[in-house]
Amino acid sequence: MILPSAVLVVRLKGEPDREHAVSPFTTIGRSDHNTVCVPRRNVSREHAVIQASAAGFIIKDLESQNGTLVNGDTIKECVLRDGDAIVIGDAQMHFRLLVPPRP
Asked: What is the DSSP string of the chain?
């Protein structure tokens, strides 16, 4: 399987945007052991994960207390598309696909 390249652009109020490369298994949460650390009280220690699959990149909520939103909808799991807006706690994120998958 050839994986496309992707980044997650994280925007936290009062801070410059941060860009994180999305790997085949990218964790998001408040704890500093996550791939993407979001140090906010309304973010669970282990909040969500983005995993590569044959369908593309899939984001899964890890039964967090405040949930994960993609394009305004609360999700348990969904396939990410280029430009999707993700909200975790008060962090706003944008998923950017750099190299589209080959058919």
From this structure: -PPPPEEEEEE-TTS--EEEE--SEEEEESSTTSSEE---TTS-TT-EEEEEETTEEEEEE-S-SS-EEETTEEESEEE--TT-EEEETTEEEEEEESSPPP-
Report CA 30 to chain centroid distance, whole Å: 13
Q: What is 62-73 written as a DSSP string?
A: -S-SS-EEETTE
Residue 65 token pair? 């207390």
20 and 10 Cβ atoms separated by less than 8 Å:
yes
User: Residue 70's beta-bridge partner residues?
Assistant: 73, 86
Residue in this structure with the two tokens 């996550």, named with its chain if needed: 34
Sign of CA dihedral 74, 80, 85, 90: positive
Q: How much is the pTM? A: 0.90
Cα three-residue angle 42-79-4, rounded to 5 degrees: 110
The band of 54, judged by pLDDT with boundaries at 50, 70 and 90, is confident
